[in-house]
Each structure stands twice: as C-alpha cells, then as structure tokens.
Specification:
Blueprint lengths: L6 E5 L6 H11 L8 E5 L15 E4 L16 H6 L4 E4 L2 H7 L3 H13 L3 E6 L3 H5 L3 H13 L10 E4 L13 H15 L4 H6 L2 E4 L7 H5 L6 E4 L6 H13 L1
Parallel strand pairs: 1-2, 1-8, 2-3, 3-4, 4-5, 5-6, 6-7, 7-8
Helix pairs in contact: 4-6, 6-7
C-alpha cells in the first residue's frame, strides 16, 4: 500500500488574532517530531504573525483566479506565496455557497495556485439533500471531472478535501465507515485520470473534525488527514488532533 504523509490543515475561516497565532505556535512547538504535516490557514493578514518553523506550513483560504490588475479586494497566488503561503484552500463549500465559486472558477484557481508553486487543497462535498437522495458519488464525480478530466496533470500537485456540506460547522460528522467509503470512491475515480497520482494523492476529511472523533477517522485506509475548522481555533485541541494523526 502506498504510504501517504498525513496532513492536518487548520482552516481558521474569518476568525483569529495575533494572540491566537502566538498561542498556536507555542503549542505546536511542544509537539514531538513526527511524519505528520501540519498546516495552518489563517486569514491572510495573520500570515506574517507566524514565525518560520519546520513544525508547520502556512496556507491561505482562497486565491484569485487572476494574475494581477484591477480586481479590488483580490489577492493573487504570487502575493500569497510571497507572504509565506505554500498551500491554498480552493472551492470550500462556503466559497461555493456564499460567494459563487463555480467548478469553472475552482479549476482556474487551482491552475493559478499550482503555477505559483503552491499546493491547492481542492474541496468537494455533497449537501444533505443530495446524500439523502443517494447522489453523493454522482455529485462528487461531476466536481472531480470539472477540475481533472481535461487537466489530469493537476492531480499530482493537488490535495483533495472531502467535506460533506451537511457536516460542516454543524457538529455532525460522517461516520468513519461513511467517510472511508467516499474517500475510497474518490481515489478509485481519480485513477481514470492518472493511476499513479491517484494512489499518491492525499485525500483529507473535513466536517466537524475534533479531538474526540479524529482517531477513528484517521484510522481509515483512504483518509489521509483532516481539514479542521472550529477545533483548530483551540490550540490544545488542534495539537491533540495532530498527535492523533501521527498515531494512526
């Protein structure tokens, strides 16, 4: 079986402060060395509040699909990279639902991030209605096709995040068996684009991941880590999640 390095990514969303950045750094610095990759994606204005460290990477929560120009309020991939971001979250369900990020835009942003030598964490997931109608796999296949069907070369540079929309910020979590079934489907489906890349790509789970449920999730063979929301704002709990990943 292909060994994939676990990735635990903190998505602070529109939360946080300089003080939280300091607390987070101090807590993570006390963790024992491990193979787990830790990523923190704060609001971009806090990127420079994190000292350079070999204990974690920094990322952004969004990126412009444009290179530069008259796009007030947007931040380019090159700007994010210059600010210290090595990853960027793309296509999060909140971006799709609240700000109109379409599959076409997600593809454009993914290409832009990779061109700037950042790793995109490309998010996909289904709504509660779609799951109840047993359309989960159909919905995910459509999203995956939109990004990778015409551009399979992007897969080897990507991280995939499965985030069931019904489990984000709700306290609800897909059971380990449910999450594993979807992750296994995603990996198998990706093989038609690039078999080798599909075996190596990290597929992480996002959806109310916390210190209580993470160990069972990370124990699944196709779950390679987590995209952590609310729990990532609590340094001690986030550190516990990171420890759990290295023990899985």
């Amino acid at each position: 079986m292909t060994q994939r390095r676990p990735l635990i990514a903190a998505n602070w969303k529109m939360n946080g402060s300089c003080e939280l950045a300091v607390q987070c750094c101090e807590t993570l610095s006390q963790l024992p060395a491990s193979n787990t990759e830790i990523l923190i994606c704060p609001p971009v204005i806090f990127l420079n509040d994190f000292p350079k460290s070999d204990r974690y990477q920094l990322g952004a929560q969004n990126v412009s699909s444009e290179v530069s120009g008259a796009f007030t309020g947007e931040i380019s991939a090159d700007m994010l990279a210059a600010a210290g971001a090595s990853y960027v979250i793309i296509g999060h369900s909140e971006r799709r639902a609240l700000f109109g990020d379409t599959d076409t835009l997600v593809l454009a942003k993914t290409k832009r991030a990779i061109a700037a030598k950042m790793t995109p964490i490309v998010c996909f997931g289904e709504t509660l209605t779609e799951r109840q109608q047993e359309k989960t796999m159909q919905v995910l296949a459509q999203h995956l096709d939109a990004v990778y069907a015409a551009h399979p070369e992007l897969l080897q540079h990507s991280v995939i995040a499965y985030e069931p929309i019904w489990a984000i910020g709700t306290g609800e979590t897909a059971s380990p068996a449910q999450a594993q079934a979807v992750h296994a489907f995603i990996r198998t489906y990706l093989k038609k684009y690039d078999d080798a890349a599909a075996s190596k790509v990290r597929i992480i789970y996002g959806g109310s991941v916390n210190a209580e449920n993470c160990a069972a999730l990370f124990a699944q063979p196709d779950i390679d880590g987590g995209l952590v929301g609310g729990a990532s704002l609590k340094p001690a709990e986030f550190a516990a999640i990171c420890l759990s990943a290295q023990d899985s």
